[in-house]
Every structure is written in structure tokens, then in C-alpha cells.
Amino acid sequence: MSEFTNVAEIFGSNVFNDAVMQERLPKKVYKELKKTIEEGKELDLATADVIAHEMKEWAIEKGATHYTHWFQPLTGVTAEKHDSFISAPDKNGKVLMSFSGKELIKGEPDASSFPSGGLRATFEARGYTAWDCTSPAFVRQDAAGATLCIPTAFCSYTGEALDQKTPLLRSMEAINTEALRLLRLFGNTTSRRVTPSVGPEQEYFLVDKAKYLQRKDLIYTGRTLFGAMPPKGQELDDHYFGNIRQRIAAFMKEVNEELWKLGVTAKTQHNEVAPAQHELAPIYAECNVAVDHNQIVMKTLKMVACRHGLQCLLHEKPFAGVNGSGKHNNWSITTDDGINLLDPGTTPHENIQFLLVLACILKAVDTHVDLLRESAADVGNDHRLGANEAPPAIISVFLGEQLEDVVEQLISTGEATHSLKGGKLETGVKTLPDLTKDATDRNRTSPFAFTGNKFEFRMVGSKDSIAAPNIVLNTIVAEAFAEASDVLEKAEDFDLAVHDLIKKYLTEHQRIVFNGNGYSDAWVEEAERRGLPNIKSMVDAIPALTTDKAIGLFEKFHVFTKAELESRAEIQYETYAKAINIEAKAMIDIASKQIIPAVIKYTKSLADTVNSVTAAGAEASVQSELLAETSGLLSDTKVALQKLMDLDKKSEEVPEGTELAHYFHEEIVPAMAELRAPVDALEMIVDKEMWPMPSYGDLMFEV
Ligand code: ADP
Ligand code: MG
């Protein structure tokens, strides 16, 4: 029996949260801080000093020896530089533990080694981290001991954002301002703040650590570059929601406990579709907290896996042939007094405010599909988007029967008179209770689905930060709200104007609504007819960041400057080229040093067998055939390897940036596929004992 976990007791025990602050900070200081958090007031240094002192005392009680500004540069992962609390020894040689307000609110890491996309030359190495007091500090316990982590934003000397956090906070401001403006028009005078809520579902794979260590491709690139499918894949659907094996259950238990201590509301866990694939979902939180928490979740999954002799793979496509991993970004907008603007109620046709919000969101998504697509682009996600299991690379919105019906009534007659009802669910079994049925069935194939009282953006990659998609969502919806308010504030007859605006938006942007099967070929053709873009790769998605439309949007709401957008595009191109270069080099290394030598050994043993069998006077036709087939594939491998090596060498002459990224996408990626094909065929033939690494079967079924 495992030991008893008192969830209520451990939850948030390592977080410097509101309760702790209220308990430990002098009343006046606490009030000042709350003002800063709630109204964005600046914090004075004297107050910061008191908070820093209390935070340090609290952290030391939790065993902390160090503190770090914890930030999210444009690498997709978090960054931290640890400083211990010790100050210079006094004359008796004793050290004191100190932490000042200045150290709390401002850090100065050397920014020169983080991607800046030309925003900052290396000689201008200054970068600043600034405390984001809206996301609570926490103490993380790991092999390094305990560390006080202070969530921060990261900016350059000239104030440009070098991270994910700064634009995210700016986009939250934008949607807050514009949503409040709209609410006031509807007569709401009480709500004081509007915040996007986000609940990201995180998918991941777990493999055995010892086997992982025998796969150089996994070690260097996070995914398998070679690997033949085992006899069994996911065709039986027996893993999804299946029984969780004990080794995995023990892992999940510890992950939950670690997350709960850090105040992360780990809620749902289950096996996913592919063998060895799982999911974890927290309860939704305010957008910036959700972004931080998702980073903590990814880090915790990795850390706890190690303790259990496992390796957690967060890559979007660790294995070809079975499902990849993504993150479903559930998004809604809520007021401080608890109104969810995306809640249609039971009779959506009567809920005019909801219908306007919905129409605005459809308009926003349709107008900026390219930006949303870009926000989900990362190198690994290229394997998923457009492949069979994932939402296709075309963005459309699923509304469900009930809302689609209301929308159609509005477009055709200008009037919506009724809403479809869910009714009773009849199971035909007397002993089962009557269940009320949702008015709409689920749709699993839509990249952007309305699911009751939130939208679920399902394109995001499993490894990627969820900051970018939420920055885009917040900003494009803020823009649509602003444009609606511009019209409505001038209207003489408000009711009539709202009515007309809803009809106008729905009519103009109806093409983005699609309730059918997003995985079908028919949809690809239909989407093309509708003029919806089908952006299949990251390199083709990046230009969306720097169009006049994007610059206009982000500058208007002070989320990104033109320079920041250009730098982000540059970083994306750079990241793409670097990642594929690493994959190509890893492939070359593995093929030359592991696979070809192993196959040569195998052909030698086959040749020896042919010789000795023939010498003994028997026929060796099977062995000879195998030898011929293996040698043929070996020679194909050598040819493909040489081609990849030549192309990779040539990449050194291609100018960096857009051109190099395209070179890797159009020349190197196909050459990698050409090398993989004969190697995977060889894996099916060569004696398992001689194959130099664990197979897909070993990795996925023997965890
Ligand atoms: P699914 O059945 O889609 O897999 P899950 O329970 O795995 O659902 O995840 C749903 C996620 O959506 C959870 O993180 C949940 O907290 C979040 N969520 C629920 N309601 C809202 C809302 N109003 N706004 C944002 N996120 C929400
Ligand atoms: Mg789920």
C-alpha cells in the first residue's frame, strides 16, 4: 500500500501565495502589494524590502539556500541563474542570509546568450528581469536543494521584450481594457477586471531510461530518427483511457504531489491513444499563471521521470506511425466577479451579449488565422499538423449543432427565435439514471472548437510554451471587441446596432465555421474553395508575424513593436534551421557509426552461413536471398547517407535566416526521409541481437 497523501495539507505548501502574504506581511505592506497586483501600481523600494525579507525568511524555513529570477526567454523553456542568500562574512567569519527588495524586483542576467533576433548586439549584453508579482513565487525542491523561484519578465536595456511573459502580460491588459469597454455598453458597471482563463491539457510519452540512453536520436533530438513499426501499434485503441500500469501510476502519484506542493492544480490523468502516451490536465487558471504552471508541469514530468528510471518525452512526434503529442489550450474570458463571457446559458439565442462575443471571436479568428497558425508552429509540430491524428493545418471553428443553428437563423432571417435543446439521454437500461444530454456532441477533429463555455485550441505542440497562442488569442479578440465598441459607442439605437453588428460579423466570417470531419480530404478541398489558408509547415507560417496586418494589430494594442515582431520571426527561422541541422547531424552520426557497421556484421554472418551451408553440400537459397536483399538496402543506405552529408555540408554556404530555414526544410528534410527508408527496412530484416539500439516495440511496449 502506498502512503496516505493529505492533499489539502500539501497543496500550495511551497507557494508564497495570498494566504502566506496575508499572514506574514505587515498589513500596510500587504495592502500595497495587493494594489500593485490588482491595479498595476508601482511598488516602492521600502515596501519591496519588507516583502523580500519575509519571502526569504519563509523560503529558508522551507530549506531554501538560493533564489532565482525564473524567466521564459525565447528558447521555449525557462531560464534561471541561482544566487545563494549568503552575504559577505562578518569579522567573526559568520555569514548572514540576506535578500533585498532590489534583488527581488530586478535582476540583471547577462542577456547575450539568449536569442534576441537582432534586438540586441552581443556587446550590449544588458538584459533585465523584473518581478511579475501577479504570478506567485515558489520554492522548488530538487537535487540542487531548495530554491526560491521568482517569476519574472525579461527585457532588453531599451525595454524590448526578450521573453514570452512580457507580451503575454501586455495582451492581457489589452483584452481587459477592451472587454470592459464592451461590458459597460451592455450596462455592466460592477465588473472591474476581465482576465483570460486557460487550462492546458499536456500530452507526453514515457519510456524506460536505460533504453532511452541507448538511443542517440532521442538523446540529441527528443525524437526517433529511425525506427520500424512494431507488429502492434495503436490500432486496437486499447491504450486510450486504459488501465494505468503500476510503474506509471507511481510516477503519476509523485508528479501530482510535486505539482500540488507548487500550487499547480493537477486534476486529470489518463493514458492517451498511442502506447506509452499519457495526459495531464490542471484546473484552468488565469492566463499568465497557466503559462507558468505549464512550464512547471513540463519540468516536473521530466524530473520525476528520472527518479523512476523513466524518461519523459515531450516532443510532438517521438515516434513515426503512432499519434504525436499536443497541448489543448482551453481558453475563456472571465470577469473578476465571476461572469464567463463565453457562457451561452441554456438559451443562447436570447443571450445577445454572448452572441456578440461569439461573433467577435469568429471575426478575430477568421481575420487572423495566419497568426494563430503561426503561434502553434514549432519544429516538432510540423510532423503533427496535417498528419492524420492531429487537427489539420487548416484552422476552422467548430460551434456544435446548437450554436451553428442559432448562427444560421441569424444570418438567414436576421432573427434567432429558438435554441436546440439537449433533451434526455436514453440508454434503454432501467437501472441507469436519466442523464441530461448536452445540446451538442463533441468534435475531436476541429483545431478550434467551442466546448460549452470555452474555446479549445488544439494545435499547440506538446513541447512548446503556450504563451504565444494565448498572446495571439488575447490580442485578436481585444481587437474585435475594440472594433465592435467603436461602432456601438456611436450608435443611436444600441439594441438595433448590436443586432446588425452580430448579423454582419456572422455573415462576413461564416466561412471559418466548420462542423464536419476536419480529417477528411473533402474538407481540404472545401477549405480551399472557402479561401482558408492551409499552411503546412513552420517555415511557411513564420511570415504571418511580420505582415502589415500583424504589425498594425500588435502595435495598436502595445503587445509587440515592429522590431519585436521582426526579431521573433528571425528567431523562429534560426531555431528551425538549428533544430533540423542537429537532426541531420545526428542521423549521419547514427547511420555511419552504428547502423552501417551493424549491418555489415550481419551480412558477414549471412555470407559465412551461405558459405558453410553450401560447403556442406546443402542449398542456401534463403540465406543468399537475404544476403542480396540486405546488401541492396545497405547500398541504398550508403547512397542516401552520402547525399545527406553533401547537402548538410552545403548548408554552410547558405545565408542565415529565411533562406537557410527554407534550405533545411526543402533540401535536408526530404534527404533525411530518404535515408530513413532503407534503414527502417533493414531493421525488419537484421537479427534483433545485432541491431544497435532498442526498437519501437522495446520503447513503447516495455515501459
Ligand atoms: P477533455 O475532455 O477536453 O480532454 P480535460 O478535462 O482533459 O477535457 O481538460 C479540460 C481543460 O479545460 C481543463 O484544464 C479544464 O480546467 C479546462 N477548462 C474548463 N473550463 C474552462 C474555462 N471556462 N476556461 C478555460 N479552461 C477551462
Ligand atoms: Mg483531456
Automatic annotation (TrEMBL):
Stored InterPro entries: Gln-synt_C, Gln_synt_N, Gln_synth/guanido_kin_cat_dom, Gln_synth_cat_dom, Gln_synth_gly_rich_site, GS_Type-3, GSIII_N
Q: Which residues form the GS catalytic domain?
A: 164-595
The UniProt entry, under Gene3D superfamilies, shows:
1.20.120.1560, Glutamine synthetase/guanido kinase, catalytic domain
Q: Name one Pfam family in it.
A: Gln-synt_C-ter
The residues forming a coiled coil are none
**Similarity comment: family membership:** Belongs to the glutamine synthetase family.
Q: What protein name is recorded for this chain? A: Glutamine synthetase III
Top-level taxonomy: Bacteria, Bacillati, Bacillota, Clostridia, Lachnospirales
